[in-house]
């Protein structure tokens, strides 16, 4: 992030007499905590490396303000990464804080990074063995009470796209539903329960066609494509009656959902409404794919009942 090098440079100039005025008095040592060539600085904060004015600014003003702005924390193997909003004011505050921190804590490896596409800003503090303990001891307010989730080091370096997570569940439902649809014998596709209150419910085959048609409709909405004409009013093509035809229709609906899941972006921008969805005025690609998943689970449960009433154990339960 080359632009931040310039910002840090500006911040260094803005901090009043950071090193020049530090350590004044008869017992004062060098202007900074730096040691001789090849020697590592002590793992301790040297407040006297800052002038009295800069010290007050750094510890009593900038530190608390940035702590309040902090959005989240990631735990790293050798330190921590702190998430901040990337507005211009916060960028300058953080750059000024980093300029002072590198003087009083020269053992820190300080990195400031902005995520692309308007994403957040990250301050990473790492260093040699023992650096992490210093952060825990000297900056508990930066670690505690954060509104963001403190992530483990195993997850800190990896960001999983929403599209991948959504597609995982599409794949899981695809296995369960196609397995259940295939498990019912072809001659049982017209089956409908008769014992109990089942008047007017869909046959097994109609259940499969209905959920597949809904998949097509919601996938098309997520992709901002025309809804297939044969989807009907969530009933599916009237011409499909045979098991193999209905099963192929179901599999095709999952291909459409996989495409919809792949189109999900982390920005989750709003898209036009579709009449069958309750997401009026707040529709997104992620929302439509989630709705399809929820709807499928509903009908999968009904299909399982139909299967068991016919003495068939669903493949996912075997």
Structure explained in plain terms:
- Helix content is 47%, strand content 7%.
- It is built from 10 helices and 4 strands.
- The chain has a 4-stranded antiparallel β-sheet with strand order 1-2-4-3.
- Helix 1 packs across helix 3, helix 7 (162-183) runs parallel beside helix 10 and helix 8 runs parallel beside helix 9 (243-262).
Stretches where pLDDT is under 50 for at least 5 consecutive residues are 1-34, 146-157
Mean pLDDT: 81
Order of helices and strands: HHEEHEEHHHHHHH
Describe the strand arrangement of the main beta sheet, using strand numbers.
1-2-4-3
- Tell me about the largest β-sheet: 4 strands, antiparallel
The end-to-end distance, rounded to whole angstroms, is 54 Å
Helix content: 40-55%
How would the global form be characterised?
elongated
* Helical stretch tally: 10
Our Rg estimate from Cα atoms comes to 30 Å
Q: Give the number of DSSP strands.
A: 4
Structural class: alpha+beta
**Amount of beta strand:** 5-15%
Brief overview:
With 318 residues, this protein is of the alpha+beta class.
């Amino acid at each position: 992030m080359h632009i931040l090098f310039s910002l840090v440079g500006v911040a260094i100039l803005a901090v009043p007499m950071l090193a020049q005025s530090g350590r004044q008095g008869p017992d004062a040592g060098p202007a900074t905590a730096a040691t001789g060539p090849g020697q590592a600085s002590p793992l301790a904060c040297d407040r006297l490396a800052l002038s009295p004015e800069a010290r007050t600014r750094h510890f009593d003003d900038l530190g608390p303000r940035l702590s309040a702005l902090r959005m989240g924390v990631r735990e790293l193997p050798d330190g921590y990464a702190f998430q901040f909003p990337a507005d211009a004011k916060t960028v300058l505050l953080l750059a000024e804080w980093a300029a002072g921190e590198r003087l009083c804590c020269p053992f820190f490896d300080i990195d400031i990074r902005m995520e692309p596409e308007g994403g957040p800003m990250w301050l990473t503090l790492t260093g040699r063995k023992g650096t992490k303990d210093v952060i825990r001891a000297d900056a508990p307010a930066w670690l505690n009470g954060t509104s963001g989730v403190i992530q483990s080091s195993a997850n800190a370096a990896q960001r999983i796209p929403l599209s991948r997570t959504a597609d995982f569940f599409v794949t899981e439902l695809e296995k369960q539903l196609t397995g259940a649809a295939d498990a019912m014998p072809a001659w049982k596709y017209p089956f409908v329960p008769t014992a109990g209150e089942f008047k007017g419910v869909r046959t097994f085959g109609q259940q499969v066609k209905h959920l597949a048609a809904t998949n097509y409709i919601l996938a098309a909405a997520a992709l901002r494509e025309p809804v297939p004409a044969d989807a009907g009013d969530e009933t599916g093509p009237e011409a499909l009656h045979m098991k193999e035809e209905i099963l192929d229709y179901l599999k095709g609906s999952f291909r459409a959902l996989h495409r919809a899941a792949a189109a999900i972006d982390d920005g989750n921008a709003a898209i036009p409404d579709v009449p069958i969805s309750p997401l009026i005025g707040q529709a997104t690609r992620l929302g439509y794919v989630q709705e399809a998943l929820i709807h499928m689970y509903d009908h999968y449960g009904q299909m399982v009942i139909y299967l068991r009433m016919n003495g068939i154990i669903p493949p996912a339960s075997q």
